[in-house]
Every structure is written in structure tokens, then in C-alpha cells.
Amino acid sequence: EETAAELEAAGAEPVLVRGNVTSSRVFDEVAALGPLDALVHNAATGVIRAALETEDKHWDWTLNANARALLTLTRACAPQMPEGSSIVGVSSLGSIRVLENYTLVGVSKAALEALVRYLAVELAPRIRVNAVSAGVVETGALEHFPNREEMISSGLARTPVGRLVQPADVADAVCFLCSPAAAMVCGHTLIVDGGFSLLA
Predict the structure, then answer these.
(1) Three-state DSSP class for 131?
(2) Options 109, 128, 164, 177, the catalytic residue
(3) What are phi and psi of 191, to 5 degrees?
(4) Active-site residue, selected from the candidate residues 102, 113, 177, 188
(5) pLDDT tens, the chain, 200 aa long
(6) Is 109 one of the catalytic residues?
(7) Would the pTM count as exceeding 0.85?
């Protein structure tokens, strides 16, 4: 509602769709919005536990929300999306790096990035599909990690840029990928981590 108010103040007419991103009702409501110039899958959830402490229901829940939902949203929206439109999935470094307690989310983000590559080829040249992979971002999501303080301190210590990634840094990368400036970026995962992943 806060974001909707900001959009209204800027002259837009936002439509809020409430619900679980894995729900068929949500897919139907999004498809009913009409042609979209950009579709950004930023919903994420998951069980933050060691692999041997997870259950199959945790796998299903995490993979469905973080990876399958992008495919289902794309099936619902892509047929109406105009030429030059863009789809962006939001990933994380856990897709290519091993992070403590991150097994299920990391695997789901790896699946998301693979799906982005397949969709990029299938939907080109009409629709661009890419992903943004963020480093440690200081948001409320970190509250779910038992090693939160260690993640923040080590993230700061090993990030060459000297600060943690902010939500606005990720949003700027998404905006770039949705813009005409990214017309030739296809099936790419743009890492936004201040250089964190460069160090051995």
C-alpha cells in the first residue's frame, strides 16, 4: 500500500494483487491485468536449515515459490506482452556459492537462473528474460538466518566496495534490465554484490 501510494503520487494507477505467488488465483489476476511491459519475479521464501534437517514439504514450498512461480507467471503473461518487454527474476549468490543453512533456497535460485536462460532463448526476440543476483542485502529477510550477525560482519569485511548491498542497488539493476538500454542483454544473470563473489 505504501508503494502504491508512491506510484499514485507519481501519476500511475497501481493495482494491488494480494495472495500467494504459487496460487492459480494470483496467476489469473495477473494475467487479467492486460499486457505488461515488465514482469519482475521478486517473491522469495524458503526454509533456512541444514540440508539434513529439511523435509520434502520444505523442498516443494521453496522450489514452487522461488522457481516454478516464474514459469507459471510467464505462461500467464508472456502471450500478451508486447515486443521489447522484459521479464526479470531475482536470484541470489546462493545459486552458485554454498552458504550456510541455504541449501533449499540456493537450489531454488539455481533453478530460477536455469529457467531464465531457457525462457530467454524461447521468448527472444520479442521478450528479454534476465535475472539479478544480489549479494548480502540488509533487509528483514536476514532475520530468518541464525547466523545473521556473522553474515553482516563477514559481508562487510569481504566486500571490496566497502558496504552491504542496499535494496535500491538491486532495484536499479532490475530497472536497467527492463529498460531499452538492455536491449541486447539476453539470458544473463547480473550479479550485484559490490565484488563480494570475486574473492577466493
Answers:
(1) strand
(2) 109
(3) -90, 125
(4) 102
(5) 999 999 999 999 999 999 999 999 999 999 999 999 999 999 999 999 999 999 999 999 999 999 999 999 999 999 999 999 999 999 999 999 998 899 999 999 999 999 999 999 999 999 999 999 998 887 666 666 666 677 777 778 889 999 999 999 999 999 999 999 999 999 999 999 999 999 87
(6) yes
(7) yes
